Structures are given as structure tokens and as C-alpha cells.
């Protein structure tokens, strides 16, 4: 029974597949791992090389941002203009931490140092020979890797400082030092690699140790120096340093004159990497074995948790098929089960909306509101086709197919609604019965097809003569039309009726023969404040009597019941 169930069909094959895959993966990894060892190391050092290049580039950018920002600082400008060394140090000393740089050097417009943040007591010397300072004294912002008297290797940017009159008064030089142990220590922590900075071919800052001390003062391997310093190229390869095998990367730093004046070194001990790789392999085998056991134990619980919502969904779909749209499953997620639940809810919600819109449409049409109907544009596909068919069916039952106006049935519904409202609110209700004069003669002369065109034109006149949303016009039958005017007294009703009569009298009804005179209408008007004892049929009968009176008095008249 279990093997034939949904869970059994998934669990047993899955256990076999997972077991095969885990065992096969462990065997394959064991036999091939050392083949991948070199590529793992290469990928690691490649990533570190990218990080080193980003660090060097970011150092230049930080120096540029630091120099240009402080060169525009109004307090700094004032202090430089006044040659106030104490004030310069007060302003500039906190800034290196803000801009992630090492130091500031501020000089006057001749390159004479006014203040140094890293050596506050050392000033008065000239730094005009530095390229970044020369650029700034020439009015440009210059960023370079450079060497100086005190700082041997740094990324520097010089920015000119101008007073309020636009005169050059000094230079702000910002730098990120690479020649100090603190900087290489921080970089080693970030890249998990040994770092060395060479000035020319000599180590001046390094994380490499020799005899328990930093290996500063030692020189680069001559063969590598020939490639990197003389050949001006990067070097990537395995190198023995102080008896330890490293995967190494050397990159030259070029000064403003495109000369190699320093070298950056990045190295990873191969022994440590191999040890880490072996530990990774061992841990992988252990974890794989544990994972296989845990996977088998958890598989039944996982499949069971998957099958439960499927059973619920199946029951809900049976209910939907039986016509019960009240479903219980509401499974969230983007997996197949979640999508299935979402699709089922979507389909049911569309059907709910169709039912709701149809119900509202029926309720509105019972009030005589033929303009309200469900919107087919809210649906798609076959649902839209169904909605279109419902709209067509609703229009067939509520509208006159010739004129597009509400039909007699819709008028009866609207009258019932307005009648009850007038009783409830004790407001007057007026009705206009309109008949086309001598319409039979018109049909006999021009034919029924042209008569239909005339009725359509008249229907448009009636509809466009009403300004309020509550006013209602319908085709009564044949050439007769009716207009219902809620909350309108007899004076207002007569005014509207006379307006319609005059408008039609001036309307040139389309016809095929110029012998026809303009069509006219006769209008019967009745106004009443209904009460619970009033009869709607009497209300209509009074309007009909007024219409008969208008006909009897020569037609093209508006008559009000006494």
C-alpha cells in the first residue's frame, strides 16, 4: 500500500537516488580533489589580486576626495591664507579618519610646508618637487603614486587652494601611506594574505617574518626584480621566500614619470592552503555521510509535509467541481504547490467576481439602471468571453435594441424604485409621455427603415436633454417614449417637456425626400407626490390623458394634467 501511495512513489526512489549521488560524490571528490587543488589556490589568489587592485584604486580616490574637499573648506582656506599653523592642524588633524586616508600636508603657494598632520613639528621645507603639488600649483588636481622625503610610498593627491578673489594661496596634499607596518597588517587581515611593500627593491613594510622579526631591509628576488622593476610587468607564480613556498603576486607602482619606484607583494603559503584543502575534503566526507543519514530520516517528514497540502488542494478542487466555491487551502510560496494553490484561488476569485458583478448588475437593473453592468475588461480569456456574453444578454433584456434606450421592462423597474423613494422622502415625481405626431404618415411616405432612423435620432435628443443622473428616459413602445423626473415639480417638468418639444421641432430628421416637414411630438406631463395609497398605474394613466389632450389640441403641444 505504501509503495503505491504518492509518498511511497517519491520516497523509495529518492532514497536510492540520494544514496547513489552522495556515495558517488564522495568517491569522485576523493579521487579528483588534488586535481582541483591548484585551481582552488589560483581562484583564491585571483580574488585577492582583484581586491588588492581595488584597494590601490580606492586609495587614490580617497586621497582625491580628501584633498579636494578640504581645499574648499572655508575654515581651512582662512587658516591657510593667514598662515596659521596651529589652526591648520586643528582643522586638518581629524579629517584623515573621515576620508580614510593617512595624512595631510599643507603648503603655501610656493610649495613651502605650513603643516603636516603626521609630523606636526616638521614644517618649513619645500615639497614643490612632488608631482601632485606641482600640478596643484599649476591650478590642476593631480593624483599619483609617489615617493617623498618622509613618506616613501603613498597614493597622493594635490588640490589648489584659492582665496575669495580667486588667487592661489596654497596646496592641500592628501595621502594614503603604504610604507608603514600598520597599513600592511590591516591589508593582511582583509585579504588573509601576506603583504609586502618594496621601495625600489627593498622591503620597507611587510608582514613576512624572519628570525622572529619583520623582514624589513631584505630585497626582492633578483629574477623577479628583473621582471617587475626592469621589465615593468606583473609577476604571478610560486616562489620560495625564507624557505617557505608561496603562491605570489608582484605588481609594480608607477610614479608620475611612469617609472617603477615601488612594488606591492601579495603571497599565500601553499602549505597552509593544502592543509586547509585537506581539512575541507575530510570535513566534506564526514558531512556527506552525516547528511545522507539525516536526509533519509528527514525525507519521510518532508514528503509528508508536501503531500498534506496536495491532499487539501485535491479536496478543494473536488468541491469547486461540485459547485462549492468555499475553499480552505491558502498555501503560500512560489513552488509548484504554492502556484497551484494561487491558481486555484485566482480561478475561484474570478468566478466570485463574476457572480458578484452579475448580482450587482441584476440589482441595478431591477432599479432600472441599465447603464450599470459588469466590465468585461476586468477579465481575460474565456472569462472575458463569458462576461461579454453576459453583458449582451443583460442588454437584450433591459435595452431597446433599435434606439439603445432602456426598454419598457427597465422603465417599470425604475418607476418602482423612484416611486418608493418619493414615498419615503415625500418628494414630487414627474413623468413625460412623448408621442411622435403622425408617425404613420412618415413611415408610409419614407418607409419603415427611414422611420427607424428617425426614432433613433429622437432617442438621442431625449437622452441628451436630461442633465441629472437620476433623470430617466425609455422607449415606451412604437413611437412613444417616456421620461421619469425624480424630485421635480410640475413647473420643472413642463420646462423640460417644452425644451424637448422645441428642440425636436427644430431638428431636421434625416430623410430621403425633401418633401418631408420636420417631425414634431406631443407631450403629456403629470406630477405627483406619491403616498402609500397611491397607484402607479393611475400615475401613468394621468400622463396618458395629458398626452391625449395634447393630441386633441392640434399636436406639437405640451399638456399638464389638471
Report on the structure:
It is built from 15 helices and 17 strands. The chain has 562 residues and is α+β, with helices and mostly antiparallel strands. It has three domains: 1-322, PAS domain (Beta-Lactamase), CATH 3.30.450; 336-389; 399-560, 2-Layer Sandwich (Alpha-Beta Plaits). A five-stranded antiparallel β-sheet has the order 2-1-5-4-3, sandwiched between helices. It is elongated. The model has no long low-confidence stretch (mean pLDDT 84).
Task: Name the shape in a single word.
Answer: elongated
Could you say which structural class the secondary elements and strand pairing correspond to? alpha+beta
Largest sheet: 5 strands, antiparallel
Helical content stands at 40-55%
List the strand order in the largest sheet.
2-1-5-4-3
CATH architecture term of the largest domain: 2-Layer Sandwich
Number of helices: 15
Distance between the termini: 90 Å
Radius of gyration: 48 Å
> Any idea of the CATH topology of the largest domain?
Beta-Lactamase
- What percentage of the residues does DSSP assign to strands (E)? 15-25%
Q: Quickly count the domains.
A: 3
**Residue windows where pLDDT falls under 50 for at least 5 positions:** none
Q: Based on the structure, what is the oligomeric state of the protein chains?
A: single chain
What's the average pLDDT?
Answer: 84
CATH top level of the largest domain? Alpha Beta
CATH superfamily of the largest domain: PAS domain
- Please tally the β strands and state the result: 17
